[in-house]
């Protein structure tokens, strides 16, 4: 969602009107957002003209599998918004967000990211496949994912725990374990995450398959 002072929270502006239809990152770290041409965000950027229009893009990362505490993280990209006319289909307008500051609050903790580091960052090779892969692991390899608890020592020794693959990247797999009887909703439940690192970063689906087999074999002893 795009947060713009004077628009966000106003009775005349719905939340969905501030959600871009598409977004992408340019070579210099700028973020391009596509909105309907008559959206409040486009009107605000057009009205600002040569003035700097401050805005914050808030991104929420939700796990693609059903799991307790499903939000995996949030990111906030703050900067200045301008229109980029003539590059989208009729009825749409592209907005350019020049990023001045970025902060992330996710499974690894809270951190600020410098604009230069954001511009140099490259997508993880699994990012476009992560949702499908996690869903496949959960539905077709649930017993093997649960068996990874054998690698946790006493921490994973409890009987009857549930395990859901939570996130996947080139460096490893994160699994959310839940112990108890309330499906992660009761006071008696104990939920914790465990990170399982691959022997080396994976480059593609083929090397991921090999890395996962290595993890599963290690859990079997």
TrEMBL record:
SUPFAM superfamilies: FMN-binding split barrel (SSF50475). Transmembrane segments: none annotated. Residues 131-213 form the DUF2470 domain. This is DUF2470 domain-containing protein. Coiled coil: none annotated. InterPro entries: DUF2470, Haem_oxidase_HugZ-like_sf. It comes from Streptomyces eurocidicus (Streptoverticillium eurocidicus).
């Amino acid at each position: 969602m795009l947060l713009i002072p004077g628009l966000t929270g106003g009775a005349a502006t719905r939340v969905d009107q501030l959600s871009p239809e598409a977004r992408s990152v340019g070579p210099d770290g700028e973020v391009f957002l596509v909105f309907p041409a008559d959206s409040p965000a486009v009107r605000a950027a057009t009205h600002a003209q040569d003035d700097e229009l401050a805005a914050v893009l808030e991104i929420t990362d939700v796990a693609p599998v059903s799991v307790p505490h499903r939000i995996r993280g949030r990111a906030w990209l703050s900067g200045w918004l301008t229109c980029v006319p003539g590059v989208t289909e009729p009825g749409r307008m592209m907005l350019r967000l020049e990023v001045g500051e970025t902060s992330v609050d996710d499974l690894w903790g809270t951190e600020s990211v410098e604009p230069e580091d954001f511009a140099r960052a490259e997508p993880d090779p699994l990012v476009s496949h992560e949702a499908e892969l996690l869903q496949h692991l959960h539905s077709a390899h649930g017993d093997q994912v649960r068996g990874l608890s054998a690698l946790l020592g006493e921490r994973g020794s409890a009987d009857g725990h549930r395990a859901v693959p939570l996130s996947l990247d080139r460096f490893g797999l994160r699994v959310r374990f839940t112990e108890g009887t309330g499906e992660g909703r009761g006071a008696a439940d104990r939920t914790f995450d465990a990170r399982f690192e691959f022997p080396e970063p994976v480059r593609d689906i083929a090397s991921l398959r090999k890395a996962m087999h290595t993890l599963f074999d290690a859990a079997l002893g």
